[in-house]
Amino acid sequence: MEKSSYELVKMAARSGRRGGSFHGGYHKRNSGKGEGSHQKILRREPKVDENSPIVASFRTYQSLMDRKNDKFERLVKISRDVTIQSKRAIFHIHRINSGVDKTTVLGEADEKLIAVREKLCQIALELQGEDLYQYIRAFSPGLQEYIEAVSFHHYCLGKGLVSLTQVQTDLEFPATEKPTTEDGECPSHPAVTLYVPPIEYMLGIADFTGELMRLCITSVSSGDMDLPFQLCQFMREVYHGFSSFSHAGSWELSRKMHTLRQSLHKVENACYTLQVRGLEIPKHMLADVFSSQDSEDTGERRNDMS
């Protein structure tokens, strides 16, 4: 029986799939041959002439950058320690309104500040022979926190505002001959000085006014009704001095000027409450009134920022 043309075409298609005589099988056989026929291209790394002056220059730059980055990281770590210890000194000074002897508290705070200077001595040793402004961002937070603590301690001693000259004098370290300790606490070293840029001094003083605002609130709770008015007058003088530098071009100074203005506003509100409503509100409730006002102001600022 003769097969139809349709069946013949169908049989040819099947045989092509099996034996590779049809287009699909032909492509498979040739694709295998093509892979074997092409040779792999091996990429050879270019040879570097180590004696080339250009290569030698880049090796020098590499070592310089590595040394600078390592020094930067060391300064960041020391600055963190300075910040932590300075905050501890500030918190300790705030105990003068808790019924503890003021002289004892300030004496213990002075010992803490001496320990902070030991850390700052390490920063001065790291910066020997270096450009200070290349590393200023590494230790600037710690230096500002130290200036804040020193200013707060100096004011509580009854000596007013600490000057830049006084801060700079405390950071002049004479030559010493100490054995090297395991914790690296400033071993024997030549005479070194940690230079304090004026802008860092101003930023530290701006932070210091925030501690005066907290001192004002706590003094009311302890029954001292005269200290808020003294703090208000002092902060007004500081703000008046900062107003001359409001257009100095430093964004950080402008930001802290805004915080200084808010702190002064809180102290003025506290003085207003004491002067106008002091006869109406019992003394033991005045601190709660100030705390509630502080919470309301904080909530309003958050709403404005959002």
Automatic annotation (TrEMBL):
Mg(2+) binds at residues 148, 211. Residues 35-47 have a biased composition (Basic and acidic residues). Residues 16-47 are annotated as: Disordered. GO terms for cellular component: cytoplasm; nucleus. One of its GO terms (molecular function) is sequence-specific DNA binding. Pfam families: Translin (PF01997). Keywords: Cytoplasm, Magnesium, Metal-binding, Nucleus. The keyword Transmembrane helix does not apply. The keyword Acyltransferase does not apply. It is found in: Cytoplasm; Nucleus. This is Translin-associated protein X-like. It comes from the Eukaryota. The lineage of its organism: Eukaryota, Metazoa, Chordata, Cephalochordata, Leptocardii. It comes from Branchiostoma belcheri. Belongs to the translin family. InterPro entries: Translin_C (IPR016069), Translin_fam (IPR002848), Translin_N (IPR016068), Translin_sf (IPR036081). The gene is LOC109475002.
